[in-house]
Amino acid sequence: MVLSAQDGKATIMDIARAAGVSKSTVSLVLNNSPLVKPLTAEKVKNAAEKLGYVYNRSAASLRQGTSNVVAMVVNDLTNSFFVELLIGAERKLLESGFITLLSHTGEDIKLQAQVLSSMREQKAAGLILCPALYTPPELAITLKKWGMPFVTVMRSLNDEESDFIGCDNYQGIKLATQHLVNLGHTDIAFIGRNRTNSVSVVRQDGYEDCLRENNIRIHSPWIIASKISMQDGKVAIRRLLALKKRPTAVVCYNDLIAIGVLNEIGEQGLTAGRDIAVVGSDGVAMAGFCNPPLTTVALHSHKVGELASQILLERVKNPDAPVVKQLLKPELIVRKSCGADIQSKSLSPDAS
Amino acid sequence: MVLSAQDGKATIMDIARAAGVSKSTVSLVLNNSPLVKPLTAEKVKNAAEKLGYVYNRSAASLRQGTSNVVAMVVNDLTNSFFVELLIGAERKLLESGFITLLSHTGEDIKLQAQVLSSMREQKAAGLILCPALYTPPELAITLKKWGMPFVTVMRSLNDEESDFIGCDNYQGIKLATQHLVNLGHTDIAFIGRNRTNSVSVVRQDGYEDCLRENNIRIHSPWIIASKISMQDGKVAIRRLLALKKRPTAVVCYNDLIAIGVLNEIGEQGLTAGRDIAVVGSDGVAMAGFCNPPLTTVALHSHKVGELASQILLERVKNPDAPVVKQLLKPELIVRKSCGADIQSKSLSPDAS
DNA sequence: CTGAAAGCGCTTACAG
DNA sequence: CTGAAAGCGCTTACAG
């Protein structure tokens, strides 16, 4: 194939001339319109190839008033749950011909507002938003006024009228807590209390309701406020271990915190699962490779990302379709940090 | 502020009319040109605000032939090193008025080629590329023919004429290996051999050269091929532990592999640092929270990302500036997985 | 199934 | 310091 000296500079007009058709026809061919006769389409495609033609999306976007980019604004990429979600979403978008404009807000709502404006200027076709903590709910109204289709993920904006894909945080934490109860624990702590984070509120509710349903009294010194990081998990369990009356098990808000917890337990010469049971939530890949491997609740990060993309693209196509609110079903993954293996061993006849 | 019914639909012409100036002047104001009298600029800005004006980047891109998006194509976001790098780069780009078009290739060169084409169509102003394994070196030529400024990160394309930001992998692994030698080890394994990954080749060289310089014979059964994942690290150490003649220490290609190694060691009831020493490379955040905490070589992921953005933006401004090739200096971070704490304890007078 | 024409909203010389 | 004019490369009714 001989590339023209103008490689990359050819326009639709050049193709039209080379192929002996009008530029309208070229445009139709480039967009795979069924209106064009196959033979003509072939001629056009060959000419485009020969000229080293590159489609100019800026021109198309200007003309159409929208683009083939989708904005993805994520609160915390240091939490691999969101990275896994991003990977799922990005792949799915790509398969549908969209490309991802990414921004990481790091839970900074000022920054979030700034990047959203920027993405509006880019004429993003839609937005997948994992809102930063403390995002004002009016953001939903703003986005609608902008006419930007969006779906919120994991955290909602408390807006009835917008699409949301999340996980059943309440059932998830209940599953985890009940598992500890089933293993015989009654002294169960919760790390990650934060009354201004709706997800934390729900997870704490799941923990407390589970205890109540099992007639276990809630012991408030065992409910520890914590930011969402490994380091803060570490600090929280340290406080718990320093208590005169220690819990025998701990439910963590998420895996990130649980990983910090496991680390500190190890540092203190203790063994999670034997000396104290630990469960997390989210089911990040890393959880399976902790020491000991972390019992957690899989929230299906990739699936959430894929679903969010899919729902968004449907919303883009059809703004008037019914609102989608979907909570994925959590799934308990039992590993060793909860001590389930030790217990079953001591119950088996061949236990030493 | 009263928003017009046309919120978001106003153009530069509407502003011009409202402010009583020409649209050229409006354009200059929007681009913060110093040519416009402050008073005029103020009038224009007020009018824009009042009309709910949104800058249309598609139009600007079409006219200018370039955009304010920067493409970032990353080989492996399941490795948090690259996530950290991405975070650093994205933040820096945002500060400079650029927004990030992201794609995750997952080491798939077909997919990589596809997304690069797509980013070309978007008229990305530049590209930060962490190339997929086995990327043909001709990619550098292609990108140049496209006229797309780019900088490769971590892995180079073996092209003298293009910018590259990486880490001194050779010195890094040497640092790690020498640390084990200093602790008294002579039976040191290497996990992560891959002769078709240039980074692995260099790291293995660092390991081997360090042994040689210390007059330690290289024992090839202790050099284990492995893919770059936690699971593959797990499998590799299992093979090593099954050997009749086991090594007493192991250098891992990177932290991802090391995390898998630590997990398997724990699963076998052994303790890293006491029963076998482990060191990683990269210095991901997670390394500090392993059990035991992982001794590793910090390669400064955020810094690499920031530097890559900075160099790219300079390249965009000045295509003829001298080529930049920069290797960041690695830094050993001693934690417990290498057993340094145990050794120093046994050397201290108050050891039990 | 194909062509001629208008226009998307900017920026950029150029003239004053 | 400001204005009039041209044009970036597409898509989309519309007419045939």
Structural features, described:
The structure is a homodimer of 352-residue chains. Chain A has 352 residues and is of the alpha/beta class. Chain A folds into three domains: 12-55, Orthogonal Bundle (434 Repressor (Amino-terminal Domain)), CATH 1.10.260.40; 67-167 and 301-328, Rossmann fold (3-Layer(aba) Sandwich), CATH 3.40.50.2300; 169-299 and 333-347, Rossmann fold (3-Layer(aba) Sandwich). Helices cover 44% and strands 14% of the residues of chain A. Chain A contains 13 helices and twelve strands. Chain A has helices spanning 12-19, 23-30, 38-51, 57-64, 80-95, 109-121, 139-146, 169-182, 198-213, 230-241, 255-267, 301-317, 340-347, and strands spanning 69-74, 99-104, 126-129, 150-153, 163-167, 188-193, 223-225, 249-252, 277-279, 296-298, 325-328, 331-333. In chain A, the strands form three sheets. The first copy, chain A, has a six-stranded parallel sheet, with helices on both faces. In chain A, strand 6 (188-193), helix 9 (198-213) and strand 7 (223-225) form a beta-alpha-beta unit. At the A-B interface, helix 4, helix 5, strand 2, helix 6 and helix 11 of A face helix 4, helix 5, strand 2, helix 6 and helix 11 of B. Chain A binds a DNA duplex (16 and 16 nucleotides) through residues 11-13, 21-25, 27-28, 30-31, 35-37, 40, 55-65.
